[in-house]
TrEMBL record:
Gene: tusA
This protein's name: Sulfur carrier protein TusA
Domain UPF0033: start-end pairs: 3-71
Recorded coiled-coil stretches: none
InterPro entries on file: TusA-like, TusA-like_sf
Originating organism: Buchnera aphidicola
Gene3D superfamilies found in the cross-reference section: TusA-like domain
């Protein structure tokens, strides 16, 4: 099941804090689609995934909203 998280209008650190809060509610292996308009979100989300050991499956930065597909590895 794919969960969509709308993080439009949020900037770091709020963006990452809300993403972390949501990933805590998911089970290992679930996928989450993140929507954001923060132009610096790419670096933030890459580092978040690396630190939390999630897998960033894809990202699209061509237009707003930017999208990130993440596979959760912890729950």
């Amino acid at each position: 099941m794919l969960i969509t998280v709308n993080l439009l209008k949020l900037r770091c650190p709020d963006l990452i804090m809300m993403l972390r809060k949501k990933t805590r509610t998911l089970e290992k292996g679930q996928k989450i689609l993140v929507l954001t308009d923060d132009k610096f979100s790419n670096t933030d989300i890459i580092l978040f995934c690396r630190f939390m050991k999630h897998t960033l499956l894809s990202s699209s930065l061509n237009k707003i909203p930017y999208t990130y597909l993440i596979k959760v590895h912890t729950g």
